[in-house]
Amino acid sequence: MHIGTTLTNYIIETQRHIKGATGEFTGLLNDLAVACKKIADLVNKGDLVDILGTAGSENVQGEQQKKLDVISNEIFIEALAHNGHVAALASEEMDEVYHLPADRPRGKYLVLFDPLDGSSNIDVNVSVGTIFSILKAPPGVENPEPAAFLKPGTEQVAAGYCIYGPSTMMVLTTGHGVDMFTLDKHFGEFLLTHEGIQIPEDTQEFAINASNMRFWEAPVKRYIDECLAGKDGPRGKDFNMRWVASMVAEVHRILTRGGVFMYPTDEKIKAKGQEGKLRLMYEANPMGFIVEQAGGACTTGRERIMTIAPRDIHQRVPVVLGSRNEVERVTSYHNG
Ligand code: AHG
Ligand code: MN
Ligand code: MN
User: pLDDT confidence of 54, banded at 50, 70, 90?
Assistant: First the structure.
């Protein structure tokens, strides 16, 4: 594959590596690309069209839905439900599994997605994104049950995200490394711009919402205290900090120049009866797959995310991901 190749050609080539794949996988990734291009166009238009602000509804997580959360979800359904490439869908913005209309052909994949990640950034014109995870559907099942989606991250056939930033980029893995595509708006195509992304093993940059500091568990507090102590502390080097509040943007930065991203559990989260803030099935698992494929690591702080046996489509987990040596350090603070 060469730099500048179109996503369409790349997908056709990639399909050759996937056991048992027919044209359906190519079709599915094309559908996803179309959905992301539509969302990119709307995000880009911003206030010129009526997409900003709240929708006046709540999702299953009890979070206020933004108009663009709802619209992006509809764009995904529209792009994926009619072409015979998927058997069912699950999304952050839908309480239940989405079953296809009775007259639509069923395909052999399941897609889980976060149609718009970083919603709090939409109205302030900061990068947002879309995250997706692709699983095999159980064969011959007309309307797969939620249980069909509850597979560990290691079962993902592919995962990716699209970042709507200064440029729109699609980042993909099918288990053979991580490649990045940049949308050429005039051409209307994603073109391959970075191949075989590798996250540096070491980093001096961390990302965490420090406003939660007083609720953190001791191992997280210890790790951040040591980073903040810089040259004068046990790490013997200064650290930099970033927090965009869009997981897609944080992961994109880490894939580009390394770093560690954490959304740990804390006393406030536990008081709500939850285990974490981020969602396992359409945030942590796809990002974990991408980060591991780029040579990084992704854990809850205690165990590898990708081997968790899921119980619920909207299950939440603590997340620590990025440069391998830092993730291992944080994990060892929890387990040691
Ligand atoms: P979403 O917009 O899909 O609900 O996800 C937002 C997530 C994630 O992208 C980000 O890292 C985190 O929530 C931000 O949380 P804080 O607002 O607590 O910083
Ligand atoms: Mn999200
Ligand atoms: Mn979202």
Answer: confident
